[in-house]
């Protein structure tokens, strides 16, 4: 078995793919109305985005009665401030709750949490 991608649902898969393309610098692969892919230039698992018209974004941090986060992406960076500014410029929002010193939680344009982190 070989993991090929993590798939994120979105009401606008192309827009979410463009966000992650701006963040990661990966080229587009498939680009269909309901399915868009990004693949890292050096190979390895990529990201895919599928249409979910009724997406309910998860709540971060989780709270009773709200959609819980099922997964999130951890993205290692060299500089949290610089990477965070790039994420915000691409369309992310800084989450109000930050649980760790060397990690910053952001919400992508569809509301999926993702973490930027540096090695301590």
TrEMBL record:
Domain VOC: 2-120
Source superkingdom: Bacteria
InterPro entries given in the database record: Glyas_Bleomycin-R_OHBP_Dase, Glyoxalase_6, VOC_core
Matches recorded under SUPFAM superfamilies: Glyoxalase/Bleomycin resistance protein/Dihydroxybiphenyl dioxygenase
UniProt xrefs under PANTHER family: CONSERVED PROTEIN, HYPOTHETICAL FUSION PROTEIN
Protein name, entry field: VOC family protein
Organism per entry: Amycolatopsis carbonis
